[in-house]
């Protein structure tokens, strides 16, 4: 009986030691995986990554460079991810997963020329507008909030427009479509927001 107890103790000790080693190894692997995953997420969240695709660099990026979001008196630049990628991790991850579908169209060459891009601009713009509307212009509000605005320091047109929009429950994208990119030829502001001004980038 005594010999049997002495034999079981070393086995039990070895089992616990193996469990702790396995747990520690799993922890280290988890840290390495998370670090690599987060690094990859951040690498794809840079403007240079966004314009590494020919479609973006020769079309919407060139338009964006002529706007106040790119160059302004204060030197504060809103880059592609600032406007198109959520800040919080969960929504950011969801957006990255959704973006994988864009790779299919990239390799398929659906919008790889200015002509193809222009032919699809309205559909692409509507997709972005709808997404921004559904989130109450969440990415815009990272920098712009009605509660933070001093209407007395705005031009009369902007001041009145913002106050009217706040009272009507409108969101940024309702009136600011095309603020960083040219509006599609097919877009009709009167059908979209009747009686309201739409601020946009003028087409050449």
TrEMBL record:
Keyword Cytoplasm: no
Entry binding sites for heme 2: 80, 83-84, 181
Keyword Transport: yes
One family name in Pfam for this protein: Cytochrom_NNT
UniProt: heme 4 binding residues: 172, 175-176
GO CC annotation: plasma membrane
Alphabetical list of InterPro entries matching this protein: Cytochrome_c-type_ET (IPR051174), Multihaem_cyt_sf (IPR036280), NapC/NirT/NrfH (IPR024717), NapC/NirT_cyt_c_N (IPR005126), NapC/NirT_cytc_sf (IPR038266)
Sites where the protein binds heme 1: 50, 53, 56, 102
Transmembrane segments: 18-37
Start and end residues of each NapC/NirT cytochrome c N-terminal domain: 19-185
GO molecular function: electron transfer activity; heme binding; metal ion binding
Keywords associated with the record: Cell membrane, Electron transport, Heme, Iron, Membrane, Metal-binding, Transmembrane, Transmembrane helix, Transport
Note on cofactor: Binds 4 heme groups per subunit.
Location in or out of the cell: Cell membrane
UniProt cross-references to Gene3D superfamilies, sorted A to Z: Di-heme elbow motif domain
GO terms (BP aspect): anaerobic respiration; denitrification pathway
PTM comment: Binds 4 heme groups per subunit.
Record-stated family: Belongs to the NapC/NirT/NrfH family.
Official protein name in the record: Cytochrome c-type protein
Source organism per UniProt: Thiorhodococcus minor
């Amino acid at each position: 009986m005594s010999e049997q107890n002495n034999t079981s103790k070393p086995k039990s000790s070895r089992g616990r030691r193996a469990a702790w080693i396995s747990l520690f190894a799993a922890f280290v692997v988890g840290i390495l995986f998370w670090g690599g995953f987060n690094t990859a997420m951040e690498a794809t969240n840079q403007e240079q990554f966004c314009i590494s695709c020919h479609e973006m660099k020769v079309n919407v990026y060139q338009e964006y460079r002529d706007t106040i979001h790119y160059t302004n008196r204060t030197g504060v630049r809103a880059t592609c991810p600032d406007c198109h990628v959520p800040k919080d991790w969960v929504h950011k991850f969801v957006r990255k997963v959704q973006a994988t579908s864009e790779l299919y169209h990239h390799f398929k060459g659906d919008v790889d020329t200015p002509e193809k891009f222009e032919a699809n601009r309205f559909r692409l713009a509507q997709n972005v507008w709808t997404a921004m509307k559904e989130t109450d212009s969440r990415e815009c509000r990272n920098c712009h909030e009605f509660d933070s605005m001093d209407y007395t320091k705005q031009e009369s047109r902007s001041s009145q427009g913002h106050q009217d929009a706040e009272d009507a429950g409108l969101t940024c994208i309702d009136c600011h479509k095309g603020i960083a990119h040219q509006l599609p030829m097919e877009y009709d502001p009167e059908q979209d927001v009747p009686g309201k001004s739409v601020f946009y980038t003028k087409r050449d």
